[in-house]
Structures are given as structure tokens and as C-alpha cells.
What does this fold into?
Amino acid sequence: MTHSSSKGLLPKLVLLMLTLLSFFSLANITPVEKHGSLAIENGQLVNQNHQAVSLAGPSLFWSNNGWSGEEFYSKEVVTNISKQWQASIIRVAMGADFKGSYLTFPEDNLLKVTQVIEAAIDNNIYVIIDWHSHHAERDVEQAVHFFQLMAKKYGHLPHIIYEIYNEPLKNTDWHSVIKPYAIEVIKAIRAIDKDNIILVGTQSWSQDVDISAKNPIKNVKNIAYSLHFYAGTHREELRQKAQQALDAGLALFVSEWGTVTANGDGAVDYLETEKWLAFIRKNKLSHCSWALSRKNEGAAIFTAEASITGPWPDEQLTTNGRYLKNIISNWGY
Ligand code: MG
It folds into this structure.
């Protein structure tokens, strides 16, 4: 027995329509709808289906009161970075311990940080909550308190990534200072949130990932190590260190990088940035570029006249800003 062609046509049309519908809805799927809860498996960031994932977005500037970056801590900015730039992630750089920071003005800074985190959740993009400090080991109790607060509030959501120490200095020893700090803060987070990704800063402004690879944190899942670079200063030598760490099985996450020199200024180094981007693509790393600010320096994404909410026409972006927008909006996720 065979069905007549007229009987078979209707189900075929319905099937075709459903296929088209799912195609168009997939094309507009948000990053968190697509990837869900993230994990680290065999040194690689993976999504809910155990597939490698590579996220791209910008970092906010220090949140400190009275510094120039705080004006971009808003829902509108996050929505425009998500919709206009197609970013899959944004990094909150919560100034921890300088003038105007969380430790001196906790309520102000918490409010700014919370606005961005909740806007990222609303837009279904990932968000890094970064303890933006060069001396985090001096304030372990406060860091523990802050991350427990964040874990209680947001740890059940797939969007959240914790970054517990932005950039330890060159003389801050991994083995005796950074690693013990990390173990304590990780323990506090894991008491509340068993699974979200935790990024651990590494010695020398988050460059000495090779040192961490020789003495990694054991028996905790979903840990990655921060690799930061500024293309105008850090080159092949740093990529080789990163490669050593990857070869040793360490998961790396480029939670901050710049196209300019390490002091945040100077011109865009296109040649070296392209080498870094090839390295990042090849190793399926995720990255956040510095920084959403109107400060008069090379790393600023916006011109002095730019809107503080967006969307931003290209003439409101610096040379660096136009280049980063192009990288992020074409990255895919
Ligand atoms: Mg969780």
C-alpha cells in the first residue's frame, strides 16, 4: 500500500513550515539560550551539549566612583552591546581597592555592578563578575563576602562567571600568595554555587599561566586561568607561555586584552592583534577587550563626544573601538 500524493502533501508542507520556523528562530537565538550552563572539560570551555564554545565581548572600565568608566555601567549599554555589537559576553570590572572603589563605597559600586549583571541576564548574554584588583590577597575576607553575595543572588543562573582576582603583580607569588587566596575564595563560592565557571588570576598581571600550570588548583571543577595581553607590548613570548599551559591541560580564558600597549595607551597594533586573534581562534578561547570608556587613551572604545547609552554610530568610536566592534560583531557564538 502506498499513500496517494495528495494525502502526503499536507504533512510535508507542515514539516517544511516547521523546519523554516526553527531555522529562523535559531538564527536569532541568544548566547545563553544556545549554550546554557558552561563547564570546563579537558581544558576547554564547553556548553551544555559538551561542545567547545568561544565567547567574545568587551570589558567595562573600572567601576570606581569618579573615574570615567562608571558612566557606562547601565542597562542601555549592555542591551546595545548585545544587540548592536552581537556580543556574547560582557565583563564587569568592579574596582575593589583603589579610591572610589567597592571597599570604600560598597553600596555605590554594588548598585552599578548589579545593574550590569541584571541587564546581561535580561539580554541572555554571559557576564564576568571581576574583582578588579592588583592586591586582592590584602582583602580576602571582603572578597569572600562579595563573592558569596553574588553566588547567593546569581549562582543558580547560567549567565554568571566569577573572576576572583584581576591581575596579581609581578612579585606576587603564585604558590604562596595567589593560589592560597584563590583556594579560599573558591571554597566560599563553591559552598553556595557548585558549578559556575571561576576564573583565577595568574602571576605578573595574569600572564604567568605557565607557572600556574606547574602547580594548578586541584579537585575543583570548572576552573579556568586568566591570560591577559596587550598586543602592543606582549607578543610571541607570551603566546608560547600560554601554549605551554594549554599543552599541560590548563583551561585559559582571556578575560582582558587590548590592541594597544600595556599601559592602556598608544596606537592599535593590528599585526600583533591579528596574531593573537588567530591564537585565540585556534585554541577556542573566550575573550573580553578593554575597555568601554571615553577616557583620553588608546584603549578607550568611545570618543569624548560619544553617547553614554548607545547605540553608537561609527564616528562615536575611536580607531580602537571600530576595530574591536568589528572583531566582536563578526566573532559568532
Ligand atoms: Mg550555579
User: Anything to note?
Assistant: Confidence is low (pLDDT under 50) at residues 1-5. Strands lie at 39-41, 44-46, 56-60, 89-95, 126-132, 160-163, 198-200, 223-230, 252-258, 287-292. The chain has eleven helices and ten strands.
